[in-house]
């Protein structure tokens, strides 16, 4: 046989939920087989979910994952699908050291071929894999009816040397990589460039299969693809949705056939979808069906509410207007208009009487009085969350969080902060993009993200979502008369540039000056950020006096469905 | 010369504060030289502070540390101390990879001998060193006037193989290790046993020099020591205080002379001191001179207030009684008595009127109403913190935090939680120990911890600190009529045993049953802990969509005195 059909199963998994993940793998395998695939490929650690953090250390979990993989292989054979090669990721155990391994396995002929162990273990940025796993030492070539398939897992292709280097000398026909690669702005092109380089090195087409979905504070964007050794794009799966597509490898052909190529998204759409998918999956995996949040009439809460309506439907969003004596009429109107546009519940809870009650006892002034208003709002939001079982959303953006322009236990209250990683200027950009998309017919809940596959066309499309005045008015916390953000912060257009350089690109003071920022701005922003970082760390910490303290030693993922 | 005098400088450092740390190193070096030491030894990364986390990645910081070390060497030479060997820890740079190194340097003759780079980089528990540093590859023997001194840094002696193994073949006279080893209950003996083994392996006395002080949520206990190759204890420094002592090595002698041996502490004293030092140093390094906290009359807040009075003096403790309609008269009296015993400020803020104001608007019932009371208290505590610049202390213990028996944004509010790592039964033990110590004459502020060296004898000694009824009464959150902790939790004597096994020793369900716990208790505790862990993770998280998100990518230590 010179033709081999690979099915690329870009799925969303649940950390620790072996049953649900196995079910998804079985269902996609059956679909792939029905479409005559001989190999079906699932993401890195797709059986266990990813990242599983310290769950990997539980021997009972590793045993359960192994048993589950074997049961799946037997079931496939019993269903007459023993001839299929199912490539999936799971947690393994190094027999020598008894340490966990990040492992690729192949289910075939009713058994589990313990396949390939990840070699390079990322331990930077969001990754802690060296902490958890031990390194695989061997490169592996899988022979499928005469087609030589070289194997790699995620980071293995990001580092020079190692398994891909070894595979280059082994005359492979296809390089197959399974990935759990989180979304970052601009990463699509980085991945593509890297893949082209690796495909060239091994002189074979490369399959890049990535997971999709939200997990804790990570969003995996999918966007799986296949490139040929000469850099030709042979397949591209869409981002942010589950997907099954095919790559027909022909060993005899001079050029591989080009399959389905999903359209690229524009940048604002990409980031907006990432935020909505993160929230939507966080809710689904933590069993929330609705959210509550404060609606101030400002742009941050407006964008968060809109994202929430896109994630779970406006009817499951509870917006709470909590005006004080300093809230403008315009703000109150904007909040009400937004709720109406979204089809959200809208309730008003004036904080003035509560504020007066506190002040009769405490007589606070200055910042303490401003914080008090924000904290009364926090108590109200949490009361809604507790009494109606709603996920409280915090509405802070990255610019204000970075500069400490926020009240701990006040507006920072919430179980999830959908825009905490968006600078203020991005908040405006995405708001404008979402309004424009609505005008172009993209109704609430119609975004191309996991779970929206069904009935998107049935949704109604409002002509405007976010009130224009929320986007255009000057930002204000409205905690004292006439207050403007620009009283305390540089203008956002400038601030965001400095923040990006200082926080995201780790430029030091000398670098920032060389970037062309003036000294006063640089020193102001550095002082704000450093102070905010210091304050942000003032959470309940205490000495570690026993073998294991909370929050520092034990690192478990949020969605832990595994029960021993 | 056959005699060599080592000075063991067990000091407290400040992360990122090169000036302050250099000043301490210079002062201790001068004192050591005045006492005829030829070698003076400082802890791991003593020039930079430890752990410096991602501060290591800043090239400007590494350059500043290098410049500072050179300036110190020149200054020592200028002061006529060029002949002294000053062994200290700092951050270095691997010239090949440009990555940070955890480095031991020797200042001598006016220059910096770039010495030894740590080989084993711990990346488990509280340690993230593999993330940050690259590994040193060489073992190093320092020849000091004919005495061969083998070098190692902390983790290097905890792993078999590596540098100590190499040193065993190199006929060294002394094994010198510098450490940043955090306190854990019972670790003193583990360290000693390990040192005896290593000293035996290299057939030479081993110097174990550890840092002291609190940093973030770690407490370093000092307790430096020297053991001979046959296991004889030759020197032991006290725990929890800065100290300078000496070890006279005699190459000709058959047995080394025994120096000063500090008395061992009993276990409760040790843990109590660790908690107080953690809080005291956290306050000092974050520039707080006073604290505020809610005083309920219960044992948790009573112990925290007493620790705080030991850390900063009763006159700097502000205790706030916040009774509700469910608070018993006994509780209110106990809170007042405690404050009087401690010499603390005491204020009463009834929450009933505030609770009624909220209820007029929100009409909450059940747990939401209970949480509302706790959150009103949280707002009040933060109002005191903001308006008087006091560090708010959270009073939760490990048992209730583990089981989720606490209100987020309510009683969990605070910048530091002194007893978050103590199980409830330990809270009672330490309270009894502290009361007994007071009877034996240990006044407030007289504890042997860093910063208490001066004027301890001048303090008055109260005959009783914690009201006996706070220790003896049945625990209750007092959030509804007649509520008792035992309504929701197993009895603490049993609960704490299960928690220790499940959380601290990572026993799974099968292990817990094999430990002899009954099935109902095991399932109850596991359910509570897993659910609490899930809820605890519901903090403002959001998707990571740009290159670097807060709280996940950037890991900076709290006390960041370094300014570029």
From TrEMBL, chains A, B:
EC number assigned by the record: 6.3.5.1
Highest taxon, organism lineage: Bacteria
Gene3D superfamilies xref list: Carbon-nitrogen hydrolase, HUPs
Residue stretches making up the CN hydrolase domain: 4-251
A single Gene Ontology CC term: cytoplasm
Catalysis performed (reactions): deamido-NAD(+) + L-glutamine + ATP + H2O = L-glutamate + AMP + diphosphate + NAD(+) + H(+)
GO terms for biological process, alphabetical: NAD+ biosynthetic process
Pathway(s) it belongs to: Cofactor biosynthesis; NAD(+) biosynthesis; NAD(+) from deamido-NAD(+) (L-Gln route): step 1/1
Ligand binding (L-glutamine): 124, 181, 187
Catalytic residues identified in the record: 44 (proton acceptor), 118 (for glutaminase activity), 154 (nucleophile)
Pfam families, A to Z: CN_hydrolase (PF00795), NAD_synthase (PF02540)
UniProt keyword terms in alphabetical order: ATP-binding, Ligase, NAD, Nucleotide-binding
Amino-acid positions noted as binding ATP in the UniProt annotation, renumbered to this chain: 294-301, 395
Matching NCBIfam families: nadE, PRK13981.1
Function: Catalyzes the ATP-dependent amidation of deamido-NAD to form NAD. Uses L-glutamine as a nitrogen source.
This protein's name: Glutamine-dependent NAD(+) synthetase
Species in which this protein is naturally found: Bifidobacterium tibiigranuli
Recorded name of the encoding gene: nadE
């Amino acid at each position: 046989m010179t033709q081999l059909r690979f099915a690329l199963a870009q799925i969303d998994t649940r950390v620790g939920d072996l049953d649900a993940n196995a079910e998804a793998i079985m269902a996609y395998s059956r679909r792939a087989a029905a479409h005559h695939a001989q190999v079906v490929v699932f993401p890195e650690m797709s059986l266990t979910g990813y990242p599983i953090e310290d769950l990997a250390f539980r021997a009972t979990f590793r045993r359960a994952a192994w048993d589950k993989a074997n049961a799946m292989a037997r079931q496939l054979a019993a269903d007459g699908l023993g001839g299929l090669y199912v490539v999936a990721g799971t947690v393994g155990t190094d027999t020598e050291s008894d340490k966990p391994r990040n492992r690729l396995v192949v289910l075939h002929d009713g058994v589990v071929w313990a396949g390939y162990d990840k070699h390079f273990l990322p331990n930077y940025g969001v990754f802690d894999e060296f902490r958890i796993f031990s390194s695989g030492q061997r490169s592996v070539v899988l022979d499928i009816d005469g087609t030589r398939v070289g194997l790699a897992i995620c980071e293995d292709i990001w580092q020079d040397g190692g398994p891909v280097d070894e595979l280059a000398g082994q005359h492979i026909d296809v390089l197959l990589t399974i990935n759990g690669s989180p979304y970052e702005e601009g990463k699509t092109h980085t991945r593509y460039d890297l893949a082209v380089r690796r495909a060239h090195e091994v002189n074979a087409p490369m399959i890049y299969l990535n997971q999709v979905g939200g997990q804790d504070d990570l969003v995996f964007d999918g966007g799986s693809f296949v490139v040929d050794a000469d850099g030709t794009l042979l397949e591209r799966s869409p981002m942010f949705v589950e997907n099954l597509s095919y790559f027909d490898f022909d060993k005899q052909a001079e050029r591989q056939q080009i399959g389905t190529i999903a359209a690229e998204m524009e940048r604002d759409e990409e980031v907006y979808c990432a935020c909505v998918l993160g929230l939507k999956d966080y809710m689904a995996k933590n069993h929330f069906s609705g959210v509550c949040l404060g609606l101030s009439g400002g742009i941050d809460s407006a964008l968060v509410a809109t994202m929430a309506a896109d994630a779970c439907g406006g009817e499951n969003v509870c917006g709470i207007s909590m005006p004080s004596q300093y809230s403008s009429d315009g703000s109150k109107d904007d909040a009400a208009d937004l709720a109406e546009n979204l089809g959200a519940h809208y309730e008003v809870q004036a904080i003035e009487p509560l504020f007066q009650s506190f002040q009769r006892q405490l007589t606070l002034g200055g910042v303490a009085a401003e914080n008090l208003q924000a904290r009364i709002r926090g108590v109200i939001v949490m009361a809604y969350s507790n009494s109606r079982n709603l996920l409280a959303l915090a509405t802070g953006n990255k610019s204000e969080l970075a500069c400490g322009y926020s009240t701990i236990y006040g507006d920072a209250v919430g179980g999830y902060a959908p825009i905490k990683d968006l600078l203020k200027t991005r908040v405006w950009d995405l708001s404008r993009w979402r309004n424009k998309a609505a005008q172009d017919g993209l109704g609430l809940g119609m975004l191309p993200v996991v779970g929206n596959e069904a009935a998107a066309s049935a949704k109604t499309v409002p002509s405007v979502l976010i009130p224009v005045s929320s986007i255009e008015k000057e930002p204000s916390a409205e905690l004292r008369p006439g207050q403007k953000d620009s009283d305390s912060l540089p203008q956002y257009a400038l601030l965001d540039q400095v923040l990006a350089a200082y926080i995201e690109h780790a430029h030091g003071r000398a670098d920032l000056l060389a970037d062309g920022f003036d000294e006063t701005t640089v020193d102001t922003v550095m002082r704000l950020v450093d102070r905010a970082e210091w304050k942000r760390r003032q959470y309940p910490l205490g000495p570690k006096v026993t073998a294991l303290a909370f929050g520092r030693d034990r690192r478990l993922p949020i969605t832990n469905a595994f029960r021993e």
